[in-house]
Structure formats: C-alpha cells, structure tokens
Amino acid sequence: MRWRGEATLLPGDDSSASDMQADIENHPVVQRVREFGPEAVEDAQVFRGELTLWIPAARLRRVCEFLRDQKELAFKYLSDVTAVDHYPGEPRFETVYHLYSIEHNQRLRLKVKLPGDDPRVDSMVPVWPSAKASEREVFDLFGIYFEGHPYLVRILLPEDWEGHPLRKDYPTEGYR
Amino acid sequence: MPLTLERVPGQEERVILSMGPQHPSTHGVLRLVLELDGETVVRAIYDIGYLHTGFEKSFEHLTYSQDITLTDRMDYLAPLSNNLGFCLAVEKLLELEIPPKAQFVRVLLTELTRIQSHLVWLGTHAIDIGAMSVFLYCFREREDILRIFEMVAGQRMMTSYFRIGGLALEPPPGWLGRVQKFLEKFPSRIDEYEGLLTKNPIWTMRTQGVGKISAEDAVAYGVSGPSLRGSGVKWDVRKAQPYSSYDKFNFDIPTRPEGDVYARYLVRLAEMRESVKIVRQAAEGLPEGPVKANAPHIVMPDRESMKTSIEALIYHFKIVTEGFHPPVGEVYHSVESPRGELGFYVVSDGSPRPFRCHVRTPSFANLQALPKIIEGRLIADVVACIGSIDVVLGEIDR
C-alpha cells in the first residue's frame, strides 16, 4: 500500500508513472539493497529527486548495517530520526531516517511502518551513535519504543508528562 | 525529579555535580550532570528541554507562510538561515523557480548572518575562557550587521524576510552601500580578534589539545558544521549540495585536522573571512530583476497592485484567509547554518498547513558529542568545550 507522497499527483505527471517505477529499480542504491535481500525493500519511491525506501521493521537493523558498511554506499552519517503519525490511518506511524553519505554525496530516506497499537522498532544506536538523542525525542513526542536503546527516557518534556504531543490525537493546546 | 546520575558502588567519594541550567557559560539553559573525581570529569550527561515550546506541533496548525515566523525563533542567532531552510524546502515541494536577484540577496544576507552568529560565538566563547575585551569588539561589529538587517527587513533579529517564492519586499535603496562599508572595515577587524587571541599564550593553553574528537567519532555522533570541519572532515552543504545559487560563488571550506577547541576556533575565524568573500561577490554581481517568483497564487501581491488590480486583491484574500495548496508529498532540504546541517523535513497532505514539519537542528546533534569530549578532562575545560561546539538552546529544544 502506498498512501503518501505519490509522485503522480501533479497534473500532467501521471503518464510517466510506469517509467518512473523502472527508473527507481535502476537506481544504484535500490539495486544494491535488492542484491542484499530482495525482500529488504517493501517499496521505493522518488519524489523531487529524493529516494525513499520502505523497510520491513524486522530487517531494519541489518539493512542499516549494510548501508553503512558497503564501500559503494557508505551511509556513515545519520542526519536525523523522526516520525510521522497518520492517525486515524493504519499502519499509524512511520519512523523516518535521513541518511547521508559524505564520500558519495548521496542522501537516502528510510521509512518503517509501525502499527498504532504498541509501536516498537529496533534502535539504531548500535549502528549510528547519533541516533541516541533523536530516538529519545521520537519516544518522547510520539511514544514509539526503540528496542535496545541504552537510555530511553523523555528528553524534551518533564518525566511525569502525560501523553505524546506530536501524536495527531493530542490537542494543540494540550489537555486541560 | 530532575535527571541525575546514579552513584557507582565503591566510588562514594565522587561528587555528582549539577551544572546549570542557570550557569553563565552554558549559553542558555543547558544543564549538565557531572560525576567528578577530584576535578576530573568521569561521566557526564546533559539535560535539555527547558526551552521546549512545541514548534513542530505549531507548524501543523499554521499555514506555510505563517510558519516562517516560527523558524526565526528556533535558532535566534541565525534567523535568516532558518528562514532560508524552510523556504527552500517548501519551494522544492512546490517546484518554484526563484528569480536570480532574490537568490543573490538570500546568499548575501545568510552569509552576513553567519558572520554575526560567529561573532556572538567568538565573544561569548572568549568571555567564558576569560578574555573579556573580545566580547565588546565582537558586539560592536555585530551591531553593524543587525543595522543592515533592520534596514532591509525592518527587524534586527526576528527578520522573517525570506518568504516562500522570494523576499518579503525589495531591499531599500542605499542598502548595498551599507554592506560595502561594512566589508571595507571588517577584514581588518578579524585581524584584531586574531591579534588578541590566536597567539595569546593563555588562550592557546586553554584551547590547544582540549576537547579532542576524531573525525570518525564526529561523523558517528552526527556532528556537522564548523565543529566537524575542525576535525578535518571537509563537508559543507553549500559545496556538497549547492542551493540558492551557491555554486556561482567562489569560496573555500576551511578545515583543521586537530579536532580540538583551538581547531574549531580557527575554522570559524577562517569561515568569517570566506563569508566576507561571498558577500563581496554577491554585492558586486547582484543581478537586476524581480525579487519574487511569478506565482500569484503563492506569493503575496504588492501593496500597490492590490489597489489597482482585482486579481491581486483576490489572490491576497485567498493567501491570507486560506493559504495555498502544495502537492501531496514530502521533502527534506538542508542548508548550512552557522552551526551545521540545518534540515527541514516537510510532509504535505495537500492542505494549506504542513501535515508534519520536522527540523533537524545542528545543535541538537552536535550536543551529543559533548559528553564524549569532556569525559576524562578537568572541570575548567568543560566551559571551553561547551563554547567550542557553539550550541543554541533555542533550536535544541524547539
């Protein structure tokens, strides 16, 4: 299911949808990850020149290690970890990873779909130590658990705060 | 119950010290918890969130044009860099073509922003380590830049001058003269700061070999900007993925291999000189033409045309009351802010408000390297290390 970020929504763009799919399959990064494991990519998409890969939650850790250690890819820099809440859609959450390869000057976005009920995903701290604070932030503001995180406590809000403010069902003014 | 460190059994003589949040050298409201063995820091953690204002939630409840005012308030020392990052992300989503003059003015003003941000950093960093007079000189020059901002945008700090599709308004006549005057005297002022500090024995003793981080560690911890280039990694978003016509300018990326506080100091000083070069090129090669993109459904019309043209009036009404509808999709765009990679991740569901807007702020990532570089060092060095990674708490807490 692809329900966000369709590249075909601009008027006049929809004729080239099948060409676009072929282009994505020929993308060097997609080809490499497919070689690593054909089922490692659920879906791929290019929008405004940015490549996004959807990775199954169970394989995320191994795919990330592969992306970091492969010489031709060398995604050694994790810019950012964040999440998007699609409430009331299901799967409700997506965690988003922005990777960058300084050697090859290439960016890549990974996404993992997570259920609304007890969202859990492997922590990427063992792969990139820089995920430590960003994952704490996602935990704090979205309530997504990162398994294997060394120190998963709230980072921006007080420890006794109720709820996760960036969830769509959390009112902007807060609970009163 | 505030964040604290657990005592290690058998090490009861060690002191757990809470440093900040109201500490003059933590540059805002940063709190550190240090475990001290005598004067040596054994472990350190940081506690943030004192300035959390929920900007990312607010983004979802304002229109794209209104969101620009929020970006100013995150990194309050570099408001124009933040404006630029957000505008470029939304413009990428909209596939808007920006006129060359607007791009050059954007480059010119963001480079002035970089200089004034580095001046605040230099002044406060020097005052932390004990050099009082540098602070006064830095703020003298910063005032000149803020006056240029005030002349152009009507505001000294919260400028909101870059808008989606170009600039808020044509810069006033005579502003380039003000910029030229600043450019004439500023390079000699950098020499003055260097004269006060670079070979000063107290300064070098306090900074050389202190707060070392290797290139591999810096990359692994997500450090970017001058702090990363001080460890010898030659990565600058302006060169690697040029935006806003940075590819038309001739400048270098200064790096130093040492990775200590002194190296980061030298990199930032060299960056100010490079910024002067860019500003000079932008001022001399400033193209003629409009400062707003030709997209009437997105860009606000001129005040004058609203009095004579019914279309302009209708578009103005639509943009103010409803906003514009970008295509469905998501973009990530990063710019080189004075502190490093500043990225905006904007998700659009086709409505006039962003579905989600996340900001990858450089200070948030850079701060992660702090415990690494202060552990094992003396407590007096902690102050020098905090200053050297140049954090702004406003953008860390957002």
CATH architecture of chain B: Orthogonal Bundle
Beta-strand share of residues of chain B: 5-15%
Q: Biggest sheet of chain B, open or closed, and with what strands and sense?
A: 3 strands, antiparallel
- Widest beta sheet: strand line-up of chain B: 1-2-3
Poorly predicted regions of chain B are none
What is the straight-line distance between the termini of chain B? 22 Å
Q: What gross morphology of chain B would you assign?
A: globular
Gist of the model:
Chain A has four helices and seven strands, in the order H-H-E-E-H-E-E-E-E-H-E. With 176 residues, chain A is α/β, with parallel strands linked by helices. By secondary structure, chain B is mostly helical.
SSE map:
The complex is a heterodimer of chains A (176) and B (398).
Chain A: H1 17-26, H2 28-36, E1 43-47, E2 50-54, H3 60-69, E3 77-85, E4 93-101, E5 106-114, E6 120-122, H4 131-142, E7 145-147
Parallel strand pairs in A: 2-5, 6-7
Antiparallel strand pairs in A: 1-2, 3-4, 4-5
Chain B: E1 15-19, E2 31-37, E3 40-47, H1 55-59, H2 64-72, H3 79-94, H4 100-129, H5 132-153, E4 162-163, E5 166-167, H6 175-197, H7 201-207, H8 215-220, H9 226-229, H10 237-240, H11 261-284, H12 303-308, H13 310-321, E6 329-337, E7 340-348, E8 356-360, H14 362-366, H15 369-374, H16 379-389, H17 393-397
Antiparallel strand pairs in B: 1-2, 2-3, 4-5, 6-7, 7-8
Helix pairs in contact in B: 2-3, 3-4, 4-5, 4-11, 4-16, 5-6, 6-11, 11-16
Please provide a written account of the structure.
The complex is a heterodimer of chains A (176) and B (398). Chain A is an alpha/beta fold and 176 residues long. Chain A has one domain: NADH:ubiquinone oxidoreductase Nqo5 subunit (Beta Polymerase, domain 2). Chain A has four helices and seven strands; from the N terminus they run H-H-E-E-H-E-E-E-E-H-E. In chain A, the strands form two sheets. Chain A has a five-stranded mixed beta sheet. In chain A, strands 6-7 form a two-stranded parallel sheet. With 398 residues, chain B is mainly alpha-helical. Chain B has a single domain, classed as Orthogonal Bundle (Cytochrome-c3 Hydrogenase, chain B). Chain B is built from 17 helices and eight strands. In chain B, helix 4 packs antiparallel against helix 5 and helix 11 runs parallel beside helix 16. Chains A and B meet through strand 3 and helix 4 of A and helix 1, strand 6, strand 7 and strand 8 of B.
